[in-house]
Amino acid sequence: MANTIKQLFNIEYPLIQAGMIWNSGWRLASAVSNAGGLGLLGAGSMYPEILLEHIQKCKKATDKPFGVNVPMLYPDMEEIINIIIDKGVKIVFTSAGNPKTHTARLKEEGITVVHVVSSVKFALKAQEAGVDAVVAEGFEAGGHNGRDETTTFTLIPMIKEQLSIPVIAAGGIATGRGMLAAMVLGADGVQVGSRFVASEESSAHLAFKKMVVAAKEGDTLLTLKELAPVRLLKNKFFDEVMELYSKNPTKEDLIKLLGRARAKRGMFEGDLEDGELEIGQIAGLIHSIKPAAEIVAEIIRDYEAAKVSFFES
Q1: Which residues contact 282 (CB under 8 A, 6 or more apart)?
Q2: Within 10 A of 242 (CB to CB), how many other CB atoms are there?
Q3: Of 270, 170, 264, nearest in space to 211 by CA
Q4: Range(s) for CATH 3.20.20.70 in the chain?
Q5: What's the topology of domain 12-203+285-312?
Q6: pLDDT tens-digit readout, 32-52
Q7: Pairing label, strands 143-144, 230-233
Q8: What digits encode the pLDDT tens for the residues 241-261?
């Protein structure tokens, strides 16, 4: 049976690397695409001129399809969209905003558009907006997240039941068995984020990668819902957030504590104490830093083995 995600993106495997801020540069995106998946550049941590540079370098590093993830809550959206169109990028994943804002224009330019959602309600709105597929992301995921705390394995069948377009599962998937489980529940493909943080090509700081590898069950928590829900590794900054919550803070208090560029400080610059360290719950199952191609191969190999085992049992 033909797979809709492989057909939609013209890729070998229905496996997408998430466009994570401070992690997903051209080295990671091109490596995943060259390995048969779909690599995404994370525009959320790039000024327009930096995104332009990464698109150009990614095109030189791979002749396979790749895309750009665009969180719409960030500034410079018009300039970013113009760069994507001008440079001939053919796949865009949008998130953190109204999918109606840019979908029609992107599709007029022949661009495949996917929107990230955390609920059935937003999945239906994305389909109505004309996107080609949705990423259904459960609250296990790292980074910014849904407020309803719906888990991936609950969300996937609920969304699949309601939509007629392809559904990509995300949140808590880092292994072939996890990929198979999502597909059995109705996903047409999977998006993997945290596992690729701990890749050699990820642009994250090595100290952050090592902390991800060392993480255990319970070392992350979803917080800061009043601003934008985010799953964080527990560190000194996290403890300060929890202490502030004990005092019934206002939204302004939380904004003041968060400050500016804290995610960059943590993930990109390696400040493990005062930085914001975004990662998914699945970090407890990540035990090594590997080349992205090895990660893709390992996930697909384990997926195929698990599929044989599942259907033979």
Answers
A1: 140, 172, 173, 174, 178, 194, 195
A2: 12
A3: 270
A4: 12-203+285-312
A5: TIM Barrel (3.20.20)
A6: 999 999 999 999 999 999 999
A7: antiparallel
A8: 999 999 999 999 999 999 989
